[in-house]
Amino acid sequence: MTHPIVDKDFLVEKRIAKSGFKFSNWTHVVLSDFPMDVPRKKGGTVKVKGFIDCCEIKQYNLLPMQGNNMLLPLKSSIRKKIKKEVGEYVHVRLFLDDSSLEIPEELLVCLADSRLAQDFFMTLTESNQKYYVDWILASKSMETKVARIVKTIQRLEQGQKFYDWPL
Which of 9, 18, 98, 110 is most buried, judged by most C-beta within 10 A? Predict the structure, then answer.
């Protein structure tokens, strides 16, 4: 790995955001004084890999905030691994991640069987492809994984992006 772009301790925070009539809780870390020379993608996001305490992350997007701060969302799966709560500190060590999305072999095989699904999948942004891949990989059993792949293929054949349908 190259030189880290972030390597220090940060406070775990929670923010309640209102979107229309819905509220959402964001548990996150604010990466203050983020280096300005780090290349950003469309929308100001930065794809990183590295560690939050002992939990390895890959292909993880930082979200832009005002000034030169970035928001590092802490998914519940990460919070469970690091066993940290709001108000505690975590050590964040991040590197730029220029790797391409790793698509599971099972999904690739099914996409190859459905030209329509494959063609639509290839038109999606990498982040939308990642939503599908992460949803499939989050399966705890093989039955769930198979069901999610089948549902993914069906939705792709209908030209639906990940958030165009309820899960």
Answer: 110
Q: How many of the other CB atoms lie within 10 Å of CB of 31?
A: 23
For residue 117, the enclosing domain spans: 105-162
* E strand or H helix at 147: helix 142-157
Displacement of CA 75 from its chain's centroid (Å): 9
DSSP letter at 132 equals: H
Total domain count for the chain?
2
What pTM does this model have? 0.71
pLDDT tens digits, the chain, 167 residues: what are they? 588 999 999 999 998 766 666 666 789 999 998 988 888 887 788 999 999 999 999 988 899 988 889 999 998 889 999 999 999 999 999 999 988 888 999 999 999 999 999 999 999 988 899 899 999 998 999 999 999 999 999 999 999 999 886 65
Q: And the tokens for 42?
A: 């469309």
The DSSP code for 65 is -
83 and 112 share a domain? no
Residues 89 and 125 in one domain: no
